[in-house]
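Reviewer 2 asked us to include a model.

Predict the structure of this chain.
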Amino acid sequence: MARPPSFSTDGDPSAGVWDAEIADQLIGKYALVGVMWTDASGDRREQYHGRIVSADPAKGIEIACEGFYKGETFVLPPSTDSLGTAQPGEYRLRATGETVINPDVLSTWRIEAPTETPS
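Predicted model (structure tokens):
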């Protein structure tokens, strides 16, 4: 498996909705993030989980990974509306077989590779 991605917005504040109050409340929350990459060869899904350690409007939302990716850092774009409250329960990660119990927040991302147009 590849290491967790870091999404970069190059400091573009228009990349998403940012609410400083919500961002402050995210610090210390446990996050479960799903990412699906789509390209001509098909879809690839990855899931990451860990503690949110920082939330900055220019640098994004940084997660210290646990489980399979422990020791790695995962960075989401600076968009506080991209995280929703998780329902209590057990979440089984298909890619690693891990079970995450009662995460605080969830986020799902879909990344589409640009399609090539014939010249």
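The helical segments are 20-26. The two ends are 34 Å apart (CA to CA). We have added this to the supplementary material.
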